[in-house]
Design goal:
single chain, 315 residues, alpha/beta, Rossmann fold, 9% strand, globular
């Protein structure tokens, strides 16, 4: 399996991708011999996945939704209104996770490296995070971007552990208790990391011990998702009709520094749920608020931007 094969499959028609997804799930169920469930986030991708497996594989396949305490109220309502969806919860609160591990800033990859560089006792690993490896091969891997290395010694911690604590662990616990195996609606187009994961798996299914999982939408694009929703008239969360492009965690800061203050995820949160916005902005790590940490990486927050522009109007 290679990137070229992935790109070729991404150019297939929607009908071809539906057939491929169905075959992927059926093969996964047959080979594992275990009861499957759909990891259901309430977003459009997992909504398509849940409909697809129930429409073409088995109407009895359940969805499992993790209510992290950080989901948009619209998402929670949509998940709870969807039939045969089990709701699970993390053991820690959002506030506790951020206070313990740090804020999710820049990207998962960069945050992972920053956390390791800050907490590791290994000089070798720290050097990799500072300088990278494989220089003689013409590229550098494992290195934190020069622009973000100041975060290693910032007065607050940066980490990717919120996803681990709030989502991955509850699902792992659920699987341990039930013996069920997941079907997950991620797309390879979402990131370079997802593309590489597809290649390493050798396709849409993973049968490695401890890593059982089916990813039947891997070769789909965002356009395919919307085409499927329209084709089968599938209900989806109302957030998308309110301007949402993504419906992930309300407080997530990954990629926020790249967004415009007038159309960012925080602008949407501020407009739709201002009380939740204020609560998240006051969460702390090492005595530093999330608002202060976001400012430190260049995020312009909607309330501050609008206040600044209000003052400028009177100049």
């Amino acid at each position: 399996m290679d990137i070229e094969t992935l790109q070729k499959r991404q150019r297939w028609t929607l009908e071809q991708k539906i057939d491929h997804a169905v075959a992927t799930v059926e093969s996964y169920i047959a080979r594992t011999g275990k009861t499957p469930y759909v990891s259901f986030s309430g977003g459009k991708d997992s909504t398509v996945l849940l409909d697809l497996v129930r429409r073409f594989v088995s109407k009895d396949i359940k969805g499992v939704f993790c209510n992290t305490g950080n989901e948009f109220p619209e998402i929670v309502r949509f998940a709870r209104s969807t039939p045969n969806v089990t709701v699970i919860h993390p053991k820690q609160t959002v506030k506790a996770v951020l206070a313990t591990y740090g804020f999710p800033l820049i990207s998962k990859e960069q945050a992972h490296g920053i956390r390791q560089a800050r907490t590791t006792k290994s000089d070798k690993l720290r050097k990799i995070r500072l300088y990278g490896t494989d220089r003689n091969k013409g590229y550098i891997s494992g290195k934190i971007s020069d622009k973000w290395q100041f975060l290693i010694n910032a007065p607050f911690m940066v980490s990717e552990q919120c996803c681990e604590c709030l989502k991955k662990r509850p699902f792992k616990q659920y699987q341990k208790e039930t013996g069920e195996v997941p079907i997950i609606g991620t797309l390879a187009t979402e990131s370079e990391a997802r593309k590489q994961q597809y290649v390493r798996r050798g396709g849409c299914n993973s049968f490695r011990e401890g890593h059982l999982g089916s990813y039947p939408l891997s070769i789909w694009t965002d356009a395919d998702i919307w085409a499927y929703l329209r084709k089968f008239n599938v209900p989806y969360c109302e957030l998308y009709n309110k301007g949402a492009v993504r419906t992930g965690c309300m407080f997530c800061g990954f990629g926020a520094h790249l967004e415009k203050p007038t159309s960012s995820r925080f602008a949407m949160l501020y407009d739709l749920h201002p009380k939740a916005y204020e609560v998240f902005m006051r969460y702390e790590n090492n005595g530093i608020t999330y608002r202060e940490a976001l400012r430190a990486v260049g995020v312009v927050l909607p309330d501050e931007y609008r206040q600044l522009n209000l003052f400028q109007d009177y100049e």
